[in-house]
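Hi all, long-time lurker, first post. I run a small reading group and we've been trying to get comfortable going from sequence to structure in the token notation. Rather than ask abstract questions, I figured I'd post a concrete chain and ask someone more experienced to write out its structure so we can walk through it together at our next meeting. Sequence below, copied exactly:
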Amino acid sequence: MKLWGGRFEKETHKMVEAFTSSIAIDARLWSEDLRLSIAHARMLGKVGVLTSEEAQALVSALGELQSEITAELKESGGSLAIMTKNNAEDIHSEIEARLTRKLGALAGKLHTARSRNDQVATATRLYLRGECSVVVEKLQAVQSTLVSLAENHVETLMPGTTHLQHAQPVSLAHHLLAYFWMLDRDKARLRECAARLNVLPLGSAALAGTSFPLDREMVAKELGFALVSQNSLDAVSDRDFVVEFLSCASLIATHLSRLSEELILWSTPEYGFVELDDAVTTGSSIMPQKKNPDVAELIRGRTGKVFGALIGALTMLKGLPLSYNRDLQEDKEFLFAGLDTVSQSLDLMALMLSKANFNRDRMTCAVEGDFSNATDLADHLVRQGMPFRQAHEVVGGVVRYCIENQKKLEQVSFDELKKISTLFRPSVVDEIQPRAVLNARTSQGGTSPAAVLKQLAQAKQSLGRLS
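-- Answer (accepted) --
Happy to help. Here is the structure in token form:
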């Protein structure tokens, strides 16, 4: 029986039923629906809308459903298909049908002073609040892996690039920690998102509130919501919290995609900076020698799926008049697609990084003779009093001299440099050696081992601030 079928004489066309059904998508909200229903029943008993006996019977039956569905899921290996076998319109209808089989007409009293509109909004907020915490933990796992790798590579030289051209030497630790801080901001954004969505819509009913004497604060407290919604129209009709989460997820996916791109490049023979483990790579059906970075490629590729979910949610909302419209049913498909993709990508990035083998020697060789020490040669002249723009021009000439004479910059002698500028001092030869260039970057946030060790300490401190 439809929850809304009283005024209808004809049955819904099967095509319409299939088109409007959402239970295949929203079945995962079953536990949240039961939780909010238990809190609602208790509140209705407290304020006298239901008798205490009625409220207790509802709470007990809902608790039984929680245990029964948990057992069914365990028996089915976690398949949510068990929730769809009765062809209910959505998970909320399925739960009510199960409750009705237990309690008969009393089950219908549970829907007093609530609508599916505020019920769905509440279940979605409850679910997403929990998932934000899970994603934060997964971000934390990737960050921990990055810190562990960085600790082993504080002095591993590698080319730092701009425009993918060698620019200045950096350490691998410094490079990896750049992603740590990107993910740290992602983590902060998710926490802020979780705080903003932690508002209770239940009690808003369909759109205008209710005439029953509800205690919404009681329900909020039981469900762990910080606030109750202040406007019933807003509470049932907006999904900005879904959009905000998907925006956060899109940035996470972007950062994972950038790191994946570098791992893909670094694992090529031309780079040879890293070898990805057999457990996270695949082969070719025709070329026996191949070892393909498929996991990294799929993380990179599925970024588009997260972006698509964000754009889909924004498009769904953009033209909706107040208050509820059935378009909002689509929010969960977008939400779950973005959430699942980011969650899986984080798990796999942590696994891929934990098994990666970085080639120190290859990275060091890539720095030798790449002229990424040219800025330090210019800085040497600046310290002798030459304006930087002039020093830049002088060192450009030195680089040209090296190219013409097939010399590495760090191999040029003091006598050769002295002929180009009398401001050069003997110490310059030592200053432009690649490791000396690395060690000289001591500014806060720089790439010198001393600065990176301080950065590592800050990163570890940040890891300890898990909320």
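A couple of things your group might point at:
The radius of gyration is 30 Å.
The chain is about 60% helix and 5% strand.
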